[in-house]
Amino acid sequence: MNLPALTHPSLINLQTTFTSREEAIFALAEQLDQQGKLYDKQQFLDAVFAREEQGPTALGEGLAVPHGKSDAVKEASFAVATLKEDLKWKGLDEDEDVNLIFLIAIPNAEAGSTHIQLLTELTTTLVDDDVREAVLKATNAEELLSLFSKEEEKAHQEDIIDTNSPTIVCVTACPAGIAHTYMAAEYLEKTGKKLGINVHVEKQGANGIEDRLTADQLNRATAVVFAAEVAIKELERFDGIPRIEVPVAEPIRHSERILKEAIEAGKNGSGAERAIASDAPKKHNSWKTDVKQALLSGISFAVPLIVAGGTVLAIAVLLSRISPEMLALYNEAGSWLNMYRKLGGGLLGTLMVPVLAAYTAYSLADKPALGPGFAAGLAANLIGAGFLGGVAGGLLAGYFMRWVKENVRVSQAFNGFLTFYLYPVLGTLVVGSLMLFVVGKPVAWLNQGLTDFLNGLSGTNAIILGAVIGLFVSADLGGPINKAAYLFCVGAMANGNFVPYAIFASVKMVSAFTVTFSTMLRPRLFKDFEIETGKSTWLLGLAGITEGAIPMAIEDPVRVIGSFLVGSAVCGAIVGAAGIGLQAPGAGIVSLFLLDYTPEIGAVGAGAIWLGAALIGTAISTAMLIAWRAHAVKRGQFDVQVATSN
Question: Residue 401 belongs to what domain range?
Fold first, then answer.
């Protein structure tokens, strides 16, 4: 980047004095305005001070880089001030002494391109102590501009580093994945050249992993520097490599100290077994695995909304049943109870499908797919495609954005523009249009057909549906099969059929109750840890959590899971046959008071059937498990460490 072209001698102030940060910003902004760089000075100042509130712009080493991105800026430019006396400026930890100020003005259209390139170029140029000192001592504007011109020429020279020098690998990552990620990387690389060591930096930014470290670099690494404030991806690659961990902004101020600490850490070693990296091509998942992982990811992010929304809605429904007055409040628009009803219903009805779609897409294509994924989910809501539309839209957004990432390339300088403008806009337009006018309509018809089918279920069909859901719930205790049942039941609930989720909620208690009752009744047949597990699983069952039964299932999968399946199928069949519904997901045993029922059954009858089905299923599973385990112990097929007497 040609830095001198973005400023002007009239924008350069040498050996000046300001009494405050505000005075400095006002003075430099006035110069930018006088030079014709701004449409509206006040609007630009508002943007600058808004950025100052978001986080510190003093970067250490006496440098402050306030900046504003606004439509009030005509063209990208910056003003400079060197100070006679240090000025206090808000820094990362505390106020810092500043003697060099760059005020950067960026049009919104260049927020992700010129902005990042200019900010990075300025800060990495000034990391050189000699350059910074020369800038501070410059006596005229031409002298200062010539320093940036020389640095521009130096940037094109190839640095030769001794191959016998230490190798330090680094990973930079910040929450936004743009500015500090690339700035920290530039500082580390530049300082590495200055120190004569090999520094290789992997950026884990908004576009995923860039400049991925090679196997050779990892295997030769003396140490690794993690300059990050978010979780490092694929952390296992660095197992056994001595490491230094610092905030992402730290290299901007102290890159030389950090690299020297890394060299010392490498000399001392980590004492851990070191992983051997390989550049063998990463095995790509099959599309079936991709789809399964994406759906499970989407569901896992939607679950908190479902639980929170269901619980809030459950509380509102419970309160409405206290008295006719509370019921009136529940139905009165704007009342406090009606607002809680809308809050819970909004989490379930408005947000659930977009969140499901967005994080299904995220699983396939990382951050760039989030915006298009949300758009796909909203489109599904708009056309009545419901839960199935969210699933289809999430997959569509994920695969489309994966293709875009692989095929739409720009230079590193435009990464911000690509990530924060092109990706979300292009993805939203394409995926949103496909959902609204092409893919979404057939999915909406399918969704309506499924709804009509479920609403028409009765008699034998309802019993079979209940039994199948029961089998799915307990087949893997929270695993993919269980999640498939969950997906189906929540989707049916979102479409207005509440029977499947009532089945699901009742069956979830069976496995947990069975572990408790079987270990209580015949402790001689169970190991110590199974007995200990059984003491608490009944509580998990009341909360609707099946995972508590996993330890016992792992120890003896055929007999334990087999017993669960029979009781769960019976439980599901009973609830399905009764036609009981449940509108509030994730409420656990509280669901007992929230059931939908026919007048013939009544509230008490519905509660008795729903809980009774779980207890009947538990009794069947418990009897089967005890009998099956006793037979296995008697034949020596299962070894039990007796801890208690019967």
Answer: 287-437
Longest alpha-carbon distance in the chain? 97
In a shared domain, residues 38 and 134: yes
Q: Of 617, 612, 621, nearest to 592 (Cα)?
A: 612
Backbone φ, ψ for residue 112 (5° rounding): -100, 0
Please tell me whether residues 487 and 607 are part of one structural domain: yes
How far is Cα 644 from Cα 646, in angstroms, rounded to an integer?
7
Please say if 571 is a catalytic residue.
no
Same domain, residue pair 382 and 465: no
The pTM is what? Answer: 0.59
- 108 class by beta-carbon count within 10 Å (0-12 exposed, 13-18 middle, 19+ buried): middle
Catalytic residue flag (residue 67): yes
From residue 27, how far is each of 47, 68, 244, 270 by CA, in Å? 15, 15, 41, 52
Q: Which amino acid is at 46?
A: D
Among 8, 67, 180, 200, the one annotated catalytic: 67
Residue 444 in any domain: the answer is no
User: Out of 174, 200, 489, 571, which one is annotated catalytic?
Assistant: 174
Token pair belonging to 110: 């260049």
Give a yes or no: residue 225 inside a domain: yes
Residue 641 covered by a domain:
no
Residue 611 near residue 546, CB atoms below 8 Å: no
Instruction: State the alpha helices, DSSP H only, in 423-556.
Output: 423-437, 440-455, 459-475, 480-494, 499-521, 528-542, 550-555
Beta bridge partners of 205: 208
- Of 369, 348, 349, 350, nearest to 360 by C-alpha is 369
- At 97-152, the pLDDT tens digits run 889 999 999 888 776 556 667 776 776 677 667 788 888 888 888 888 888 765 54
Q: With cut-offs at 50, 70 and 90, classify the pLDDT of residue 228.
A: confident
> What CATH code is carried by the domain that includes residue 215?
3.40.50.2300
- Dihedral in degrees, nearest 10, Cα atoms 245, 247, 253, 255: 30
Residue 2, burial from CB neighbour count under 10 angstroms (0-12, 13-18, 19+)? exposed
For 14-40, the pLDDT digits (tens) are 999 999 999 999 999 999 999 999 999
Residue 443 lies in a domain: no
